[in-house]
Design brief:
globular, 102 residues, alpha+beta, TATA-Binding Protein, 34% strand
Length: 102
């Protein structure tokens, strides 16, 4: 089991329509567990966990999963988010810039 901490280029100042689309995606993602203490959560049993929070640094993920399982899940999330939101979603550390909302 590995610990993963990653941010995505979805800024906390995003408009409601972005958060509505992300909320739909949360439900679609494998192993959805609901909102726990106000934060989206997946897995939540067998020691596995993914939680998301909105931070000034972007949409922040904390996960406790085997590396391959995390890579697969996170790539799916980024791919689906990019489709739904209409811009390339990725990690700022990898050069993905925050989308500027009009």
């Amino acid at each position: 089991m590995n610990i993963h901490n990653h941010n995505l280029n979805i800024h906390y100042t995003a408009p409601a329509e972005i958060w509505d689309k992300l909320n739909e995606l949360y439900f679609e993602m494998p192993f959805w567990n609901g909102f726990v203490n106000g934060c989206p959560q997946w897995y939540g049993n067998d020691g596995k966990l993914i939680e998301v929070s909105v931070e000034p640094s972007g949409l922040q993920f904390y996960a406790k999963l085997p590396q391959e399982e995390w890579n697969s899940w996170f790539e799916l999330f980024k791919s689906r988010a990019s489709e739904l939101l209409g811009f390339q979603v990725g990690e700022p550390e990898d050069g993905f810039e925050f989308y500027i909302y009009d």
